[in-house]
Amino acid sequence: MRGARIVRIAKVAPCPDRGQPHPNSLTCRAFRSPVPRWSLPFLAVLAALQCQGQLSIWAEEFENSCTQNCLASTYVGPRGAWTVVNTGTNGACPNAWFISCQENGNPVGTCGSGCGNNETLHIGNDGTCGSPNACFFCPSGDCGAAYDASCPPAVCAFCCSCQSSQTNVRAVSPVIDLTAWSTITLRFKYMEGGVTTSDNATLEFFDGLVWSTLSDMPKTPVGACAAQGTWTNFTVALPASANNNPNVRLGFRWVNDDDGSGTDPSIAIDDVELTVPYTPLGTGLIVNEMSNGASGNKEYIELLAVGTPCTTIDIRGIKVDDNNGVANNGFGTSMSGSGVSQGHFRFTNDPQWAVVPVGSLILIYNQADLNPTVPPDDPSDSSPNDKIYVLPANSPLLEACSTSPNGLLTSQYPTCVYGIGNWINMAYRDQGDAAQTRDANGRYFHGVSYGPGLQNMNGGGIDNLRISTLDHLGRVIFFNTGNYRLVANFTSAPIAGNETPGAPNNAVNALYISTIQCITLPVELLTFTAEDQRDRVRLNWTTASELNNAYFTLERSADGERFDGIATIDGAGTTQTAQYYIHDDIGPPVGTLFYRLRQTDLDGTDHLSRLVSVNRSKASPLVLGGPQEVISFTGLLDVSWSMTDASGRLEAQGRSIGTWPLPEAGVHLLRTEGPSPALYRLVVGLNGAWIQAVH
Questions:
Q1: Element of type H or E holding 583
Q2: Which of these three, 561, 593, 616, is where a domain ends?
Q3: What is the pTM of this model?
Q4: How far, in Å, CA of 650 to CA of 664, rounded?
Q5: 639: domain range?
Q6: CATH (domain of 80)
Q7: One domain for residues 414 and 441
Q8: What is the pLDDT of residues 631-663, one digit of tens each?
């Protein structure tokens, strides 16, 4: 036997016949996966439920360079042109639909305000027409969502033409193609005043044939926001006739009956979005780390293959992009063509990409500006075979497309003529950029964004992974652990000491990766656990079978990256009988510790197990031998010690590591002097001894 304190139990009852109970039924069946096979379907369903959300398929924020006096009838947004139509009786100078900053699109729950930097769709006075009250509110045009309810005679006598302000108009969206979509939800934020139903806003829907009223829009609360009111969310399901319909329009209708009374605001609308239920794809590539170096240079991106452990995934045709196509500005608007790079790159049809093991890292870097932390090229994971691929963007294993995506839909992700890859198709900028992956059909899988700009990856849908409002100058973004669709599991940090291309980002990331990798030991490892037991960590592992297993080396690390061997344990050679192993790591340091098994074959070949971790809150330097009548100081280095009985009589003393027979039954005091002096109470009884700290 190599090492000490090993217990191996070779006689284990075989698995019972079907239908018969077994005291260890969860582990009696042998498998190689680090997750028990019985739990995989359940975990897959659970993960799907946890990740299910809403996918943004169409959005309009009214941010297209309209600042003042932009009539909605002249507005052309990223989805097309808006129009305005009369839907009833209108006076000589009706209120008009505007898109401008005069009614700022403030956050939900806050008060309305005047001009800011967030344009909205709203009803206001048309000063260009000579609106009856224009002499008060806006003599030259749009004055926000304040509106003329009528022309009061007293006012008319002084400065107005007394033209009628009666209004009945609808602002109409561009045609919305909802082909292939169903169960569609419309949401937006709004603020509305007016008098009862006489001055009122309604939401309307066009199915390609007829217009219908979808919902009345209730007056929004005023509260402390007098007199303008409070920005409020509005959500409604589109009717079934919208499903798979290529010719849908939305309408916002305002009616003012010119009755001489009204309460501002009229109506203001912003952040219009259509979403559908969406469960993210279960397998693909996530952004594990990305960096643009100190100043938009020395860039790289590191991708992690995720999926069911002990399987491979096909990444042929997967696209890697910056914020073209699906980087959104807080609620879902496509930022098509807005990235630094006008294009993207994808993985070729090379056979090696058809069988990428789950848990693999794929590092792609700028070949024209090499980051010094990037390891040597290993484009096929062959030297060594460690589930780490390293390749430049111009590798023939990648293809580049110079055309930018133009929308969120699969059909809108362009098909291009591809050539050898180029980093220009992925370049980052310092202030507000993103990185994303899409499957071969263009469906979004994962992405992160950074910086003070508006870019959020699918911000209104399944992901909202805006890492930081900081400039990315001199920073690196990396994934830690857990659910990669939660921004809390990502970190933005200075590049110094934090760039780890071609390796786990940190200890917790290494632990996460080990849990999704398939461990192909020549032993079937059923269990591997670590348990803190005050003065030691107890390691347990069980094998279902072993093949040419010479020995295990138990390795320990404080950071999950640098490991030291702490014990060597003989294996069972070749056996089909379950083997149980126990090893006590006595007196390890405090903090989070990581352990792994290095299994060595008879021919000298090594294999590594997954990681296990344990958190030690304190260390106990004294190790008691129990009923063996021997006490050992195994964790004390360069420390003097002395032991006295309850009356103060010296019983034993020594320096550094020492052993001595247990004293007689009773209470004894043990004092240490050195780097960490301490006083302990040693209690000796008929059944052994134990120790208590004296404070």
A1: strand 579-586
A2: 616
A3: 0.56
A4: 13
A5: 622-693
A6: 2.60.120.200
A7: yes
A8: 555 444 556 777 787 677 887 777 655 556 666
